[in-house]
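fwd from M.: "can u put these together and see what the complex looks like"

so here's what she sent:
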Amino acid sequence: MPVALADADRALLSGTSGDGAALAMRLVVRAAEAQDADRLIPITRAHVDSCLYHGQASLDFVRRLGEGGAQVSVPTTLNTGAVDLLHPELWRGDEATAARGRELMEAYRALGCRPTFTCAPYQVADARPAFGEQVAWGESNAIAFCNSVLGARTERYGDFIDVACAIVGRAPDAGLHRTDGRRAVVVLRLAADVPDELLSSDVLYPVLGIVLGRRAGSRVAAIDGLPPNLDEGRLKAICAAAASSGAVAMFHVVGSTPEAATLDDALYGGEPEETVEVKLEELRAARDSLSDAAARPGSPIGAVSLGTPHASLDELRAIADELEGDRVDSGVELLVSTGRTVLDVAEQEGVVERLRDAGAELLVDTCSYLGPILRPNALPTMTDSAKWAYYAPGNIGASVVFGSRTECLRSAVMGRVWRDDSLWGSR
Amino acid sequence: MGQPVIGRVLAPGSATAPALLLSEPLSLWGGLDPATGELIDAHHPQHGAQVGGRVLVMPAGRGSSSSSSTFAEAARGGTAPAAIVLGEPDMILAIGAAVADELYGIRIPVVVVPPVELAAIGDGVLVTISEVGEVTLG
């Protein structure tokens, strides 16, 4: 069925607002067709991921928009770019690549987007959508967070289509924008053999996210059997991991997320098409899959990367507290990524100074797995992020050891892998 | 030649190339190196396979929202798959193909066929895709 367009949509298509807006509208219509949407709906905000440089095509596209006179029509935040504009000295690659990355970031700012350059726009106070708000967000972890944790509504918008929606202020009426698209169809239930100590540890949540992505694929899932009222840090870790190992754009956590006070609420009173019991063994295997098998406890490490997705203020405070009185080993680079708006507040609070005193480096606007930022090093990098562990080997050739924040920080101080296996049961 | 299957067209174009059958969905970002056309997702069963020039056959797209960019960049550099055949619709791949067409006039078909038809495509089999989304094997 063809997409029904309003007069204003047709006017954009015909170029009355310029060639850039016409191109944007053609893409939105194409997206609507791909999703079988029969109409477009208004959106109130956008988060644009297209500002990360992936090659000449990234620049060719934004230049086409800019030369065509396009501007975003709704408040729009920007995702991470290729370089840290505030700390350019952290870039270790060639200057030409950095220049193209910068040019792209600036070009999106010139379209009227706000230069937040963070993969965690939900941590930018005045950019958080309200429950039920219709938005168009890019960046897989942010999409999952927007739908699952905030209860705002976005589809899985990718590069190009995110800014296209921001320019026309419209999105296809499909998928997770619609109430019927948000019903859980698969249930993941934590098995009785998962120890309580693990359920109450941060380290479980990125690992559970990996399992969720593998089990759910692109389906909406409900997770049952977790402690109620999980904090945003744990939910964020599930989001980032599940959107890496699967195409998860929304899930419910019974007792924690806003559309799942009960399992029945998440299922809209219906029956799931599948119920999966998640046993300790599956969690252990998922955890092991995130680490290079050659790196054993006691192996030397070259770096520790925290803050993927970008660390929140609470997370920065927790890292500073855990490092209090300690100093990162001289052979280890400890890099903590965060957003520039969070960094501002952390600086005022003195958290940044405490982190730097302990030997940590702060990175904003980008992420350490996106390009040549970490010191060249043959030794493994430790991370508490399942997403980092998932993508860094392919992206930057890193060897990775996954662990909790505490395991990462203790390892950073010791200069060697330290992990507490007791949480995961004896083998 | 087998009987053509009529696929749903997410991006129009025509192509003939051998199938690269993926047993799991692939995110092109972090999964395809646009410089070489190689499958670089270390967690993927077909890690190391050459994607460029093949008809990529997979049950679904997956993961990162940057895959549209990777797709357009690979198209620009000549390392993209010749076509993509999916078991379910994927807006991110449809948009990547649309932008490759808008910017460079390069048309890479993306079509969706029913899962049972997808399962009938063997690895290495010659696949032909027509402008209207007919998928023919052999």
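replying to her w this: Chain B has a mean pLDDT of 93.
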